[in-house]
Amino acid sequence: MTPVPVPSRSRLGCIVLATSVLASSASAAPPGPEARPALARANRLAINLGFGFGSADLSQLHRGVDDLGFAAEQQFGVKQQGGKSGIQINAEIAFRYYFPYYMLAQVGCDAVYNWASASYGSVNILSNNNDNLALEVPILVGGYYPFFGRLYVFGAAGPTVVVFPRVFWDPGGIDLKGDTTVGAQVLVGADFVLAEHVSLGLELRYRYLRTGELKEKNSGVVVTSGLIRGDGSTDTYNLDLSGVSLGINLRFYIL
Fold it and tell me: CA–CA separation, 46 vs 195, rounded Å?
């Protein structure tokens, strides 16, 4: 019978060492795609429903009252005192796609409603309420990153196409309109994954949203203040609806 060779102690030690290294390397390898959290997987498509509330630079909505107050001051020498207030409410439906390397892109439609009020004098001699509705189509790109298992942070920015389907009202009751324009948005936020296909999140968003010169709805004539100011200029009306809002988002992952 031929004797079976027995490995030497040195060779046996090398085999044990190599086996240990391979085992430790396998245990330290990063988890595969199937082991990553739901939202962190690439190539996912989500439908986003959002609602936000905030403030905007609505000062231009008060221009009619400002001009009337300026005229009263010039004619009667009485400076009118008053206050202003304004709010902005927005709602959104959007599609967000998650790419590899934690990148994302989002396209949606936002409805932005603005309301403002201004009054002058102790008995509100001059007062004005304005409201308008703007529709935005934001095209955003950015990134996201998972933290603590189910919590994810994200950020994005990009241009928006803005249309104004609802006319504006000034103190004289003239219906005004604004031309389609281009704005911008920047957002940051965090999502918490409730289930495999649902997440809930908070979002802070800044929107740059301005109209051009306002025109009369029927005639298309550019509206001016009709008042000559100290430097001899006559201003036109426009609206600055830029502002910051805090929103809540519900996302449904369909892929």
Answer: 13
